[in-house]
Structure formats: C-alpha cells, structure tokens
Amino acid sequence: MTLEQEIKSVIRDVPDFPKPGILFKDITPILLQPFLMEKMVAKIIEQFKNTPIDAVAGIESRGYLFGLLIAQALKVPFIMIRKEGKLPAKTIKESYDLEYGSATIEVHSDAITPNTNILIHDDLLATGGTAIAAAKLIQQKANVIGFSFIINLSFLNGVSKLTPIQPNIQSLISY
Ligand code: AMP
Q1: Burial state string for 42-73 with b = 16 or more CB within 10 A and e = fewer than 16
Q2: 128 φ/ψ sector (left φ>0, alpha ψ -120 to 50, else beta)
Q3: What residues does 81 pair with on adjacent strands?
Q4: What's the gap in Å between 124 CA and the centre of ligand 1?
Q5: Given ligand 1 and candidates 98, 120, 130, which is best to mutate, with the most ligand atoms within 8 Å of its CB?
Q6: Which of 29, 71, 142, 171 could be a cystine partner for 56, CB 3.0 to 4.6 Å?
Q7: Full set of structural domains in the chain with CATH
Q8: What is the pLDDT, as a whole number, of residue 44?
C-alpha cells in the first residue's frame, strides 16, 4: 500500500457533519497510529526539502497536530494561529468572510520574527478562505514560504486561490 492509500484508508468520512451536505474528513483516527504519523511527517519534510523555512504556523485547531510535529522535525519555532479572544498577550488580527458572517484569527505579535519565511499548515484545504486569512495575517510581518495540508479537496479549487499568494502548495492526499 502506498502512503496515500494508507492515509485514505484511515481517514473517517462522517456525512452531514457539522451540517447537512458536508462530508467531514475526520483525521483523528490517524492520531491513533504513531508509525503512520511518523511517515506522514517525513513525507511533508521531503515535500519542503528545498524550501527555506524559518518557522511553521499552524491553524487552530487541527493544524496544530502535524504543524507542531513538522516544526519540531525541522527544529524551527511553531506559531499558533488562533480564533479571536484565546491568546493572552498582544496580538495582530485578520478578519475574513464565512458563508454566513465573518471570523477573526490572531497570533501573538512577538511570535512572528519580522521578514522571516513561514510555512502555513492546516489539516485540510477546502475553499481556501481559512488559509488565505492565515497568509494575510502572517504577511503583516513576514513572508509565506509555503502551504502544507494533509488533505486537499481539489474539487473546491482552493489551490487556485492560494497560488497568487504562494504557489508552493503541498498536500499528502487529494479527493
Ligand atoms: P476552507 O476555509 O473552506 O478552506 O476550509 C478549511 C478549514 O475548514 C480547515 O481548517 C478544515 O479543518 C475545515 N474543513 C472544511 N471542510 C472540511 C471537511 N469536509 N472536513 C473536515 N474539515 C473541513
């Protein structure tokens, strides 16, 4: 079995979560398999072996799982991008539109070293709205050097929306 086949066999599809019509890709079964996780991290490191990464930023909350492992493997800092109101110290913010209403994400101001190259990681790329907001947040102080995802829902064309920001976009599996 290829790594791609193995990941797909472990991800759980949950229909109509969190609302009717959404097929939720549940990555939590992957966390029960440490040897699979190790192979996934190694593959992500290989995908970015020619990318000069100074830090990894993970998007709350599932982006923290592999984001932290990637940062640790690269021996670079890990930056938490959080939903508004969770971080205790001084932050910078970015707001973005959702299907209904809007949302704000933020990061501790001192977590980002100015003008460094930051890899953004999340578990899944759908429409790209979340990753674009994360990129704009990082770009207030630094550079986005790449985007990393476990899953790309390619039929939603998130890649074409991220490409103008940074074309270095990798995922482990696509649907
Ligand atoms: P988007 O902003 O549309 O690219 O959505 C990406 C964000 O929403 C990520 O943080 C994902 O964790 C979550 N997400 C969107 N669609 C799904 C899905 N079908 N299954 C699991 N998570 C999803």
Answers
A1: eebeebbeeeebbbbbbbbebbbbbbebbbee
A2: left
A3: 59
A4: 5
A5: 130
A6: 71
A7: 51-174 (3.40.50.2020)
A8: 99
The two tokens of residue 79 are 């930056």
pTM summary value: 0.98
Residue with CA nearest ligand 1 atom 13: 124
Please give the mean pLDDT across all residues of the chain: 97
* C-alpha 105, offset from chain centre: 13
Those residues whose C-beta lies under 8 Å from the C-beta of residue 173, and which sit 6 or more positions away, are 4, 7, 8, 11, 150, 151, 152
| 48 Cα to the center of ligand 1, angstroms | 22
SS3 118: strand
Q: CA-to-CA distance for 157 and 168, rounded, in angstroms?
A: 15
Query: For residue 100, what pLDDT is reported?
Result: 81
Indicate the length of the chain as a whole number: 175
Q: What is the pLDDT of residues 10-54, one digit of tens each?
A: 999 999 999 999 999 999 999 999 999 999 999 999 999 999 999
CA angle 14, 159, 118 (to 5 degrees): 100
SS3 state at 149? strand
State phi, psi for 154 to the nearest 5 degrees: -65, -25
